[in-house]
Amino acid sequence: MLRRLCVSFCFFLSAAATASAAQDCSAEAILKPDVIRYDQNILTFLAYSASIDQLVKQNQSAGLGAKYDGFSLNYDDAKSLASMYSSRTNLALSQDASISLVSSVIPPEARRDFIECIRLTTSNIELVTKPGAQFQEAFQGEVLWHPTYSVENKPTIADEREVKLIITNGTIDFGNGSKLRPQQDAPFRISRPNLDKPLYLTAFIDNKASDQLEFPARPRQTVRTELREVKTEMFHRSGHHGPDPADWGPFCVKPEKGGILLPSTAVASKSGGGHEYDGRTSITISSSSPLAVCITVHSKGTGSTEEKHGHQVQGSLTVAEAFMEDIKYQN
Predict the structure, then answer these.
(1) Domain residue spans in the chain?
(2) Class of the 132-219 domain?
(3) 250, 295 in Cβ contact below 8 A?
(4) What pTM was estimated for this model as a whole?
(5) How far apart are the first and last CA of the chain?
(6) Which of 35, 197, 230, 322 is a plausible cystine mate for 169, CB 3.0–4.6 Å?
(7) DSSP string spanning 157-202?
(8) Which CATH architecture has domain 221-326?
(9) DSSP character for 106?
(10) 99-134 b/e with 16+ CB inside 10 Å = b?
């Protein structure tokens, strides 16, 4: 059953919250969409979009935009793209999967704040991987232990504790049984022979569990984008063609490959010439939706029937279409 893509983002800035009162849990501060790439793959983009969507619903943040396939999208377009993919693939990312994917691309100094702001709890153990690990048959990571409690000194081992890793749909090459003290980290290596099955990994230290690292099964489809264009004929205003103001259109772009349009990528422009061309002609985007984006060409007229006061104008519109495409893997 299709579940809604959702990451539970609950943000509180009071001292009663687990996250520090001074900690900025806004999407702008944590996710930094202007400097962090969330379009490295479709799964990470979906996780990011779900995070932003949840923030907006909770009225804790303005709708942030995103980048995908080289295009800058506003919040509505990012949401539409994610919704199209989810509905056509029946994919639902769990909260653990979304957090794991987004965490992998956030800089180390922001990652811990990101997790704590989402879960409203202070993390004791983190499982950290690098971007792209979810598509690798073998990858390395680190277990970070930063307990928020006082670790008891035990005879012979002081505050040293053993790392226990539990995995599903993979094998642990090394790292299981590592010894750590508070504020230390230990490497691990995972083999994942079947990328078509989701991977789950949990670390236990001092009888406490980390949040679950989850990598979804690799996707069978992705989203591609291509520009669509419409160009009007050249329209004339003059004593011969008519000096009165005129509007022409609408002229529309529609999806060509069964996808959706991304209206925030629309660019309308004009070309032409003549007497007072710039001031007397214009192009406007008259309607905009995922199914059609349209322009109208305007002329204020010539103000005179003399041919020397005539002008001509042509309009054009480009907008990106996002559409589904199968992924072909070599294995």
Answers:
(1) 1-122, 132-219, 221-326
(2) mainly beta
(3) yes
(4) 0.81
(5) 28
(6) 197
(7) TBT-EEEEEEEESSEEEE-TT-EE-TT-EEEEEEE-S-TTS-EEEE
(8) Sandwich (2.60)
(9) S
(10) bbbbbbbbeeebbbbbbbbbbeeebbbbbbbeeebb
